[in-house]
Amino acid sequence: MKNRGKQLIWQNYQKDIADDHFFYVRSCIRQNFFPGAETTFLRILKDVLNKDVYDDPSHTTCTGIGYHTDIVPLETTMTVVARQFALMTEKGYKNFIPSCVTSFGLYLEILETWHNYPEVLEKTRSNLMLATGRSFVLPENIVHASDVIYKFRSEIAKKAKYRLVNIHTGKPLKVVEHIGCHYAKMFPDKSVGGAEFPRVLSGIIEEWGGEVIDYPERRHCCGFGFRQYFIKANRGYTFSSVKKKFDSMSPYEPDLIVTNCPGCNVFLDKGQYVISEQEGIVYSRDGYGIPVLTFEELTGVVLGFDPWDIGLQVHQVSVEPLLDKIGVKYDIQKKYTDKNNRLLGKPVKPTLLKTL
Amino acid sequence: MPRIAVIGGGVAGMEVAFRLSQLSFEVDIIEKSFILGGHVHKWQKLFPDFTPAHQIVDQLKNQLRDKVNILFGNEVIKAEQENTKHILYLSDGTTQVYDAIVITTGFKLFNANRKEEYGYSVYPNVITSSELEEYFQNDKPIITKENRIVERIAFIHCVGSRDEKVGNRHCSKVCCITAVKQAIEVAQRNPDAEIYLFYMDLRMFDRKFEDLYLQAQTEYGIKFVRGRLSEVSEKADSRLFLKLEDTLLGKPLRLTVDLVVLMVGMETAENSIQLANALGIPVGQDNFMLPVNCHSQKNITGNRGIFVAGCASGPKSIGETLADARSAALEVYSYLNCN
What's the whole-model pTM score? Predict the structure, then answer.
């Protein structure tokens, strides 16, 4: 592979990422499945990068899940999105950063719709005013939360406690980067790096010492696909997609998968349990599977945050083998305890997939 | 003696310049590079009869010898018109006055980087049809960048042609038959190779083209699949993994190959639009120059005394280009004799 070719492509897909003063909107999936990830992101921005970021407790779902499963009409979705922008406006912010990739895509889609059909924007303004008495200004800068980490990747590298290097071999960790479909496939020019060879995560991984694996099914969806998973009869599509991806990446023996989309993280992490139970396959030699981290979690790890504060204990695939490779110190006794050291209970062991 | 400028020294420019010199006009070829022959100069053999390309270029060069003035390394910077005279300001700082101009600026090859999903310039074994010609400089087997003999190869038709996503609705016309020719040349060098051509339509429009297409199938076992490529990835062993659709069966298809050849189409030449604007010539939606009438006045532009020939007015084969160039020479002759 010629990196020069990729660099040429990346040159065409660069964008302005605001430097400070962010209005943050959470992800329905991320805050439920990996609740430590968003807390970690806010901690990184506030405490490590000294940025001003506002996490508004009044904001709601963007309705993306409902929209993509056809149970929320577009007009309603636009009004809800308008309300998020109204909250941002009321708090005096102009830079909007969603945690969720599907939300990011949906915000872009709606902004594009409003740009091309100003009468729809006016109708939405009217709907929001009638429903809530609120008005809003469009964001000046809207990027995904992973874009912000990408922007400050060098600064984070300087402050990092660990690098993505196997301390036992001295070699870079082999990392699979998985980008959510709605990050770049809908609006490639609103991404870092485009849809074919996205740069947002690969740039972070390389900056922190890892080696990115370019495997054949790299572009393939994680399998979530909304209708594929939410319609029970279609779930075979979801897990056949998961299996397709793991069959394709496993010959490279990756040490880690990093995602920027909450849904992808769920299906690549918990999907390994499903595949192991259904197909009797585990995609790593040690039997523990391939750890899957969100970009916020990975950032927290390299910065030396306690893995259990980041929330890595809620992952299906045990992260300890990865932490051991990086050299992260952790207290295994605290994995399943709360902040008062009370045991929260331990998850049931899978049949085949080994866990710690 | 009337002076004529021929802008572009490819095969169209060389032929029109020669024919005009035969008609006793004083002719300058204004060529931006330092060689004649344009794209044909880089080609090894020509469809449909495998004529060595250099024979055509050499013949045209020999015809020109001592009859035509060639201004190498020159481009038109600015153009003005005074009555029937055309004043061209050239990049070497000189100003030339002509009685007629023939535009033979030809085409440029589609930049395959624009089809990012095909991985050109990312995966070393994804090459263009133009680059494959370099492999044909000798009769040795075709090998990959890792020096592995090619055992399976895929030709992808219509790369940058008939593709609205990249802004090109037009057909580049010669890529289909070029792919058939190149596939046969690969089969001759790598007789055990599996060769696949993935096409939208096969446009075998000219004499002997269908024969070559049949020969490719019956004599060389080349497989033609009506299908479109979705994306290219690289496997750990550097072979290429293709995701395609067989559009006849309506089914997805996956294929691992050693080499992918992108049949890159034609686009209007670099700076052609600026030149057209400078000379007051309209261009079509495809950005190629528009003659007054595509049937009976194919070489005449809307601006008096300015003519067009060859691929400057749209994709053409070499035979068509040469015929078009002769036609343009006659139009210039008629125009100058009427004035």
Answer: 0.90
